[in-house]
Design goal:
The chain is of the alpha/beta class and 530 residues long. The protein has four domains: 23-75 and 291-417 and 450-483, 3-Layer(aba) Sandwich (Rossmann fold), CATH 3.40.50.10490; 101-278, Rossmann fold; 419-448, no CATH class; 491-529. The chain contains 20 helices and eleven strands. The strands form two sheets. It has a six-stranded mixed sheet, sandwiched between helices. The protein is globular, with a radius of gyration of 25 Å.
Length: 530
């Protein structure tokens, strides 16, 4: 079976009942097996997908838990839901859309994807051959921003001849920072917005246009590119047709890295990097489609996440990439996970009945150890950790890389093994603290048994990063399926946008302060009006 069809099908939503999880007998069996399973595997439990090794030895494990997980997936019609997702069926029923981002990286994409990819690559070839656009200002927010930041940090940290600035926040200081010191005559402004109505993006785009105009650029619109699912809106805004690159309604914003949103990446670090990421993601798609459940990496990561959140009650997930170049992976996964799984009702509108999506947070490398690892090791709550590291470095400082590897493995082992009172007491006495040893030992106890996963990339290549991101996408899809929620909408965000529009009119004085606000909001609107 192929992961994709040749054209976007007019497929209805896969009909699947979504009774709340606690009502399923399979859920009761899964919880029981999770509680009885070992805190971590006593034997190596390592899987492989698209060149990535994923060591789940730090997660709850037993044959009974594996079987209960498979039965729970069957109860949620996993195979039909997976096929629906990868074949472009309506996986987002609240908006009656597909979530077919995997089609963007298929080895043999559908015609419209091929067309836009070729247009993007041709734009890059011409710009490179003419040595145009020494500066790029990439304007977008959320899914139109984080993925591009991540790919540039990963593969452009040694710098290219093009200077890229990012402008996401509506804060005027961000605007000044993005434009300061650039030559407007040699700057390309890339505006990425799925709807081309995003307030922050369009406001920042308008200021960038005015900046070009104020500098006397003869035809400022020729220095603006739009990437959107609404090419008509971009054209009305003034962007020339040849500078409008399209993606589609069936691509969610937080999955749009695989589209022409990566034009900035191609210009800054080459179209080959984009192609490599697409290839790695496609390989992970195929693994997700074909691998048996017990060897399916995204599925097994999802099941471990369900145990940690909904059975053991951990409220967050820590992402610790031990690679300086992957610092932007944390906010990328944070948005991907929290915007997808921050839901509390099933597809049928009933309360889920168990805790869903965790808070996702983290920091890169050994910086994290000197920031929050004390809390991970000995805090009252703790959090599961995804350790991510590259087996081989791309620099010559091998001693540095060995230190990095050692720190990653040591912190992980400490989380798993812990240290009991007797061990701590002996340690204190061996250190010469005999008089205070009995008391001091209590402060050195580590509970251990704290869940974690080690994700090992052979090297940080575009292929490996693409596979890693697709792995997290599919993991999140499986968790949403088990919880019975829709991971492809974001109505909570939309509600805030609506309220902000009304408050903006009141702050500007165009409308009086409305009585509908709470007392605090009304007070601050009046205060900020001056």
């Amino acid at each position: 079976m192929n992961a994709h069809t040749d054209a976007l099908p007019d497929a209805p939503s896969v009909t699947r009942p979504t009774p709340p999880l606690p009502t399923l007998p399979e859920w009761e069996c899964f919880c029981d097996a999770a509680h009885k399973a070992n805190q971590y595997a006593f034997e190596l439990h390592c899987l492989k997908a698209a060149g990535i090794q994923v060591d789940l030895s730090g997660q709850r494990y037993s044959p009974e838990l594996q079987q209960a997980g498979a039965q729970l997936l069957a109860a949620r019609n996993f195979e039909a839901a997976r096929a629906n997702l990868l074949q472009g069926g309506i996986a987002n029923p609240t908006e009656q859309r597909a979530a077919w981002h995997s089609a963007l990286r298929a080895p043999a994409p559908i015609a419209e994807v091929i067309k836009e990819r070729e247009r993007m690559n041709e734009f890059v070839r011409v710009a490179d051959s003419e040595r145009r656009w020494r500066n790029i200002v990439h304007i977008g927010i959320g899914g139109s921003d984080w993925g591009v930041r991540l790919s540039l940090a990963a593969f452009g940290y040694r710098r290219s001849w093009r200077n890229v600035r990012f402008l996401a926040n509506i804060d005027g200081h961000a605007l000044e920072h993005a434009l300061s010191g650039l030559d407007p005559h040699d700057t390309l402004v890339v505006i990425a917005s799925k709807s081309f109505t995003t307030t922050e993006t369009l406001q920042n785009g308008q200021r960038a246009l005015e900046w070009l105009q104020a500098a006397g650029v003869a035809n400022p619109y020729e220095q603006i590119v739009a990437i959107t699912a609404r090419p008509d809106a971009a054209a009305r805004w003034g962007v020339p047709q040849g500078h409008i690159f399209q993606f589609w309604d069936w691509v969610g914003g937080r999955f749009s890295l695989w589209s022409a949103v990566s034009l900035t990446t191609a210009l800054a670090v080459s179209a080959d990097v984009v192609a490599g990421m697409l290839s790695g993601a496609a390989a992970m798609d195929q693994h997700f489609l074909e691998a048996p459940i017990a060897q399916n990496v995204p599925v097994q990561m999802a099941l471990a996440g369900i145990v940690n959140r909904s059975v053991l009650g951990y409220g967050s997930l820590n992402i610790s990439p031990y690679d300086f170049r992957l610092g932007n992976l944390v906010p990328y996964i944070q948005q991907l996970d929290m915007e997808s799984l921050g839901k509390s009702v099933t597809l049928d509108g009933q309360p889920v009945g168990v805790p869903t999506g965790p808070a996702v947070w983290g920091l890169a490398g050994t910086d994290a150890q000197h920031t929050f690892y004390q809390w991970l090791h000995q805090g009252s709550d703790g959090a599961p950790v995804d350790f991510i590291i590259c087996q081989q470095a791309d620099h010559e400082n091998q001693e540095h890389h060995r230190l990095l590897l050692a720190n990653c493995l040591a912190q992980r082992e400490a989380l798993m093994r812990g240290k009991n009172y007797e061990q701590a007491l002996a340690e204190c006495r061996n250190g010469g603290a005999n008089a205070d040893a009995a008391q001091l030992a209590h402060h050195r106890v580590h509970s251990g048994g704290r869940p974690n996963t080690l994700i090992v990339l052979p090297r940080l290549t575009p292929f490996a990063l693409g596979a890693l991101l697709a792995m997290y996408e599919h993991k999140i899809f499986v968790q949403g399926l088990i919880w019975g929620i829709n991971p492809f909408d974001q109505w909570g965000v939309e509600y805030g946008k609506v309220l902000a529009s009304g408050i903006m009119d009141e702050l500007s004085g165009e409308q009086p302060v409305q009585n509908k606000h709470d007392a605090s909001t009304s007070h601050w609107i009046r205060a900020f009006r001056g």
